[in-house]
């Protein structure tokens, strides 16, 4: 694994499944989908257009803390409509910088208006750890002269 990888390489490795929901769906249906798919965010799509992202953080801050009911609240009422997204050519480092600067944990990967996948901070951390382990193994093999 390359520590200087592009997001495209990560999507090829992890898969590019994107779970989405419509803005008029209820927050409860979004939460059920997130639980079923074991994800922390859904892209919100109207037609074929990306209109926002809904995260567990949005739910906690905009529904639970305000005493709203998940079954009555539409996704469009709580989604983050300013979506920070990246092209597949962005590097892991660039994405980590963006996530830190904007305090987000999920980045949709978009090219020519089409959503290609979504990257989480966990995906990036796992990639970096694997790349470091690979580098350490290569160095040990080089130094000792054997792959053990």
Quick structural summary:
The protein is of the alpha+beta class and 148 residues long. The chain is built from 5 helices and 5 strands, in the order H-E-H-E-E-H-H-E-E-H. The longest helix has 24 residues, at 121-144.
Termini Cα gap: 19 Å
| Biggest sheet: strand arrangement | 1-2-3
CATH topology: CBS-domain
Proportion of helical residues = 40-55%
Give the CATH class: Alpha Beta
Overall body shape: elongated
Assign the CATH architecture.
Answer: Roll
Number of strands: 5
- Main sheet properties: 3 strands, mixed
Beta-strand share of residues: 15-25%
| Low-pLDDT residue intervals, each spanning 5 or more residues | none
Task: Give me the number of helical elements.
Answer: 5
Name of the CATH homologous superfamily: CBS-domain
What does it look like?
The chain is an alpha+beta fold and 148 residues long. The chain is 43% helix and 19% strand. The chain has 5 helices and 5 strands. The strands form 2 sheets. It has a 3-stranded mixed β-sheet with strand order 1-2-3. A hairpin with a 2-residue loop joins β2 (41-46) and β3 (49-55).
Give the helix/strand layout:
Layout lengths: L6 H8 L5 E2 L5 H11 L3 E6 L2 E7 H9 L27 H11 L3 E6 L2 E7 H24 L4
Parallel strand pairs: 1-2
Antiparallel strand pairs: 2-3, 4-5
């Amino acid at each position: 694994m390359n520590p200087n990888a592009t997001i495209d390489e990560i999507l090829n490795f992890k898969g590019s499944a994107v779970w989405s929901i419509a803005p008029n769906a209820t927050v409860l249906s979004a939460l059920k989908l997130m639980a079923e798919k074991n994800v922390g965010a859904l892209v919100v799509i109207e037609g074929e257009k990306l209109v926002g992202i809904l995260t567990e953080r949005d739910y906690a801050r905009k529904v639970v803390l305000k005493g709203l009911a998940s079954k009555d609240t539409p996704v469009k009422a709580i989604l983050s409509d300013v979506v920070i997204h990246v092209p597949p050519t962005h590097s892991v480092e660039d994405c980590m910088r963006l996530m830190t600067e904007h305090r987000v944990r999920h980045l949709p990967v978009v090219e020519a208006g089409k959503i290609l996948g979504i990257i989480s901070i966990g995906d990036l951390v796992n990639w970096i750890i694997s790349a470091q382990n690979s580098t350490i193994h290569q160095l040990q093999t080089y130094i000792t002269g054997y792959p053990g």
